[in-house]
Design brief:
Blueprint lengths: L5 E7 L27 H8 L10 E5 L3 H10 L6 E5 L5 H15 L4 E6 L3 E2 L2 H16 L3 E6 L10 E7 L7 E7 L4 H10 L2 E11 H11 L1 H12 L2 E3 L2 E3 L2 H5 L6 H6 L5 E6 L3 E2 L4 H7 L8 E3 L2 E4 L5 E4 L4 E4 L4 E5 L4 E5 L6 H10 L10 E4 L2 E9 L2 E8 L7 E3 L3 E9 L2 E5 L2 E5 L4 E4 L5 E4 L6 E9 L8 E4 L14
Parallel strand pairs: 1-2, 1-4, 2-3, 3-11, 6-12, 14-16, 15-17, 16-18
Antiparallel strand pairs: 4-9, 5-13, 6-9, 7-8, 7-9, 8-12, 10-11, 18-19, 20-21, 21-22, 22-29, 23-30, 24-27, 24-29, 25-26, 25-28
Helix pairs in contact: 3-6, 3-7, 6-7
Length: 483
Amino acid sequence: MQKAEICPVILSGGSGTRLWPVSRAEYPKQLLPLAGQRTMIQETALRVADRGTYGPPIIISNNDHRFTIGAQLSEIGVEPARHVLEPVGRNTAPAVAVGAYLAEQMDPATILLVLPADHFIHDNKDFERAIRVALEYARAGQLVTFGIEPISPATGYGYINAGAPASDKADAFLVDEFKEKPDAQTAQNYLNKGGYYWNSGIFMFRADTILGEMAAYCPRIRDGAKEALKRAVRDLDFLRLDSAAFEATPSDSLDFAVMEHTRNAVVVPTNMGWSDIGSWQALWDIGEKSTANNVTIGDVVCLDTRNSYIRSDDRLVATIGITDLIVVDTADVLLVASRAHVDQVKNLVQELATQGRPEVQSHRRVYRPWGFFETIQSGERHQVKHLCVNPGARLSLQKHFKRAEHWIVVKGTARVTIGDQVSDVQENESVYIPLEAVHRLENPGDTPLSVIEVQSGSYLGEDDIVRFDDDYRRHEEKSHGKE
């Protein structure tokens, strides 16, 4: 295997609504440590971190998650070759096309390994075995998909029907057909018949090969991605695709756009312990179970409880006499659901969205590139927040039209700008920010700065903000709240 022959393309889109309330639009499942100590995107990046085999990854994400992804990758020592920002979601086919064009600029024969950022793989040795098998076929100009040997008649996955062996090695098979998510009886029939695999959504192919197939089967997607990349602009460490060109690109998955049409696809079977972590049931499936068949995360005490998944992000959760339930407790939401009905979580989120519930979008703690803020209490004409500012970081230079603020320094030293005045505020001291005063908060120290912010006024929404300057250039964007 040549050095850095494989270029990973990590797709970090989607909001993971089926794992609500832990996964939310502003902080979805790929940014969370759902199956271990590291987040899903960190685990994915580390899986392809061997620089003797893989080059630096191309990351494709949306704009809102860019700084969090950057910080998480930096934390594990991974520097992307490119971090591409999509202005809107367009499913996987346009994203893959963008990745292929970027790789083609280095070498048209570059091998792409397309990986969703939010998948769980238990057996990395079998993953690497499958990669070695797939590489031979990808080099030869074939489109490789990875088929998961099914362990149950799952209805939440698409299936791949394998045909004749792709070579005399019989380590891969020609793809006869892709099957949509089946009903329970059809899935059981697949298992009984054999030769059917779960569709993992992981792919390998040469950059020039996939672009050639796209020219044949989805030229508008190929051309739209090419134009969006041609007009892309650099923004700090990110590459922003052109909004107009990308929005005009058709939205489709790689499966529908190419893989279901091509006659050049092969499937490599693998038993890597894969899951797309698509529901709370999936987390129960892969979790470490007690003698009563429970998976518990956090401060949980169970009596006479069986076959349940119980998660607490903070306070004690105690259960008595329950069976086959999902219990998920976060700082602002408690979810209780039957394991048999976890697929309806997505419908619940849609209902909450129609009601305009903020819990759909964000957690009580909201992360920003400078740190985070967390709402402690909210009432009529007042709101209390905890702000944590990272060492050396600072918020935007900004002002508010409808609220004043009091800042109380709990830990560290705050450098505060109010109009033309700049002063350092020490622990146990406070400062008042009048209505419409141009102001900024920053942390000049080498430890996190902790501040209690008390807001008062006629309107306390996060969109009451005007930015004049920002280290992260967000003053050039539409307002996204306190920054």
